[in-house]
């Protein structure tokens, strides 16, 4: 049975304001981010969601908590939905980090992981989803690595193409896992 997946990025963080690539650091939402999280909830609360899955990093957890406060929709935290682990480069200026993104497609960041490893990690989440959520519509709140994994593993977009493309933020992406 198919699963409809709606993907939303975590809301705007204080690190986004400062141009920092947070990676596996927790990060916190900015005032703007908290407003955007509430708007996400207004967009998605009546979307027929069976569950919300979120990365366990603070900025994603805050997004889900604000968006779905006061609802009966279960919010489930999963570490596999985290951003790529930039290792020693967690917290580096984003412009500096992303200059060498292609170099780390297969080569892990120092004491971190590669983009391909991050996508594989998110793939394990996708593999487990049908065990409980078949024939459901779920929302996933995550990061760039989460979206790349969905684009690569569900829509067959090459990682080489994704690593070179602009992220192109928007209000949600929809996927169908069969």
UniProtKB/TrEMBL annotation:
Q: Which CDD domains match?
A: HP_PGM_like
Organism superkingdom: Bacteria
EC id: 5.4.2.11
* Top-level enzyme category: isomerase
Q: Where are the transmembrane segments?
A: none
Q: Which UniProt keywords apply?
A: Glycolysis, Isomerase
Q: Kindly identify the residues recorded as the active site.
A: 10 (tele-phosphohistidine intermediate), 83 (proton donor/acceptor)
The record's GO molecular-function terms, alphabetically, read: phosphoglycerate mutase activity
Q: Which Pfam families match?
A: His_Phos_1
GO biological process terms on file:
glycolytic process
Family note: Belongs to the phosphoglycerate mutase family. BPG-dependent PGAM subfamily.
Protein name, entry field: phosphoglycerate mutase (2,3-diphosphoglycerate-dependent)
Q: Which organism is it from?
A: Planomonospora parontospora
